[in-house]
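Sample A.
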Amino acid sequence: MEDDNARQLLNDLICAAKEKGADSVDAVFAQGDSLSVSWRGGKVDMLERAEGADLGLRAFIGQKQASCSTSDMSKEALKEIVDRVLSMAKAAPEDPYCGLADEGDIAKNFPSLDLSDDFDIEAPHLIELAREMEKVALDVEGVSQCESTNAGASKSSVFLAASNGFSGGYERTHYALSASALAGEGTAMERDGESVSVTHKADLPCPFEIGKKAGEKAVKNLGARKMPSCQASVVFHPEEAAGLLGNFAGVIKGSAIARGTSFLKEFMGKQVFAEGITIIDDPFRMRGLRSRSFDGEGLLPEKRTIVENGVLQTWLLDLRSARQLGLKSTGHASRGTSGVPAPSPNNFYMNGGPLIPQELMSDIKEGFYVTETMGMGVNGVTGDYSLAARGFWIEDGEISFPVNEMTIAGNLKEMFLHMTPANDLVFRHGIDAPTLRVEGMTIAGV
């Protein structure tokens, strides 16, 4: 659907809902086109193309709200969704915190963030990328097979309109390459992989690089041992460090704070991380994977320092959680076509420190360099942290040999306070961190 048509559709739905009794309304329309290829064993394993559009409508009657969504854009279906959402809103419970943004607070000017390109890409090109990644991975000495290689591309657009006068939309393209390789034979096989995601195809690395890294990482894992249990320093590879930062983002969401389900609920303005640590949320990063020019409630977000010198400065708030807490929204509302908005980070990252990763671990006599964690053992209410892990053992400040079937445990409250970042921050996923060293964790093995 063309941009003007999408905007007109939303405006028509808003007007129809208002005419039938809604006090206020917002509507979101999303459409996308995606193409993906999976390559395995020298041939295409899966080739998929998907196109679709979805629409969501939210209506307020007094202090009651309801939302509905549909992928059917026929006149009959659109009339039905208006009737259905109003019927649901009348039957919904009272919610004193729901409601649209005030007209004076809505975004009116949208920064250009260069989030899309011409999306001129077809299946043969993606197939060639996936084929080359497999070939390169298999050429790495020690690799026995390539589990799979994948190449994908998508283009999406989102439009949001509301009865408070907000109207906005943006387009995004996304490209991804990944490879997973197996090294060794029989019961001694090890797996690892490499992946990358970007908004512009011009920013994709050479598939040679992805395949080679996947193969080399798998080979380095061969001969993994299981080490004795101990307490020691744990160093997190940037991919895993980003997971720790994601855990932090989860417990500073306004919804968790308002419910009292975060172990940091009493820590606004207090020391949460070690001194010197700074964490930023930036919605305006050019070509950022999580960049956006307005949030899910039509507010203009802004670049914010979330943690400064280790001290927590703000929560991530949408309108509802902000009202519950007696605060103002920070422009972090995120939403799909179904359900209601909820707070979510934008481009969320931790600044690097002064040391290169080798210097960061140079004084560790024995420790664990973690390259992968597995499981769901993170409790946002208590901060308890326990995950299966693999990686490499550190001896006398050097990465020595691979280890597997280990568990690392601690409490995030203490982990954050005893954390040191290296200087190798790279923006890869939208939530990003440099190599991180955490002191005094429990490592369980033999």
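Sample B, a different protein:
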Amino acid sequence: MASRRTKGLLGAGCAASALSLIAAPVWLTTQPVLARPAAGPPMYPSQLEAEVRELSRAPRGHDDAARLDEVSAHLAGVFASAGADVSTQEFTPAHAPAPVRNVIARVGPASEERVVVGARYDAAPGELDANGATGVAALVALAGSLGTARLGVGVELVAFALGAPPYLGTVDMGSAHHARAVRARRGRVRAMLAIEGLGALSRADGSTRLPRPLGLLYPTRAEFVAVVGRYTDWRLVRAVKRAMAGATDLPVRSISGTRRLARVDAGDQQSYWAAGFPAVMITDTSHMGWRARPADADAVDYRAAAKATSALSAAIVELAR
């Protein structure tokens, strides 16, 4: 009898160990949280749409210096109109016809430590990239909402000059220049949030195409926004997800992983990792190849993008307390 009881206990222990070996990586990857009841500030789809249409009315590739100048001047103007302290960071990348500029909007108190939120304003040569423009449109909306928020540290909203191919993943990304400049000044980044598209949502079954084995862990409908980071940044991923999930009714998922598991480096956050700063990506996952990108500005889901921006504002306020 004792022998049977011992075998039963051993079997139960082995089963529990096996479940924990499965549950631990699943929890670390997906990081379930209880949504918090804090609502985000109102964001208006029409404002986001107007900005996306302005940015995507003509291609804005790295090879069109005049167009990039036009876009950077426009962004500096709208950031200033929102009450932000605006500056630019000029640099000349390799193989570029002329200098380009990051546009930086500072809100909140002056402080050495900061929260950085960024999105690229360029596109691949010849492309309009309306979905990519939603990230910059979100920055413009955030400049207004955060200007009246109670912040403990300053927030830098940065529109990066170069982030699309062929500069993606190189030392000449606009985000790389900004991250290195902050490090050179011995500035501190509490958290960096890179926005990579917010408007590619769909309720159709199978509209999310996930790499194995992630298909078992995430929805097959592309009706969520994701917080994405490395395993080592799981605390930041979880904090951002928790704040965003309670801010609106837009579903928020998260993934902490590797490039091989999922393209967690498919954005400007990689530049801040290289500089030694914690960073995550906020994305509709189209840039990770999980879902199709909208063909043009008419196909962007601006209501979903507005909800994502509202949730993002709530998360930034939480991080900047």
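Observation for Sample B: The chain has eight helices and eight strands.
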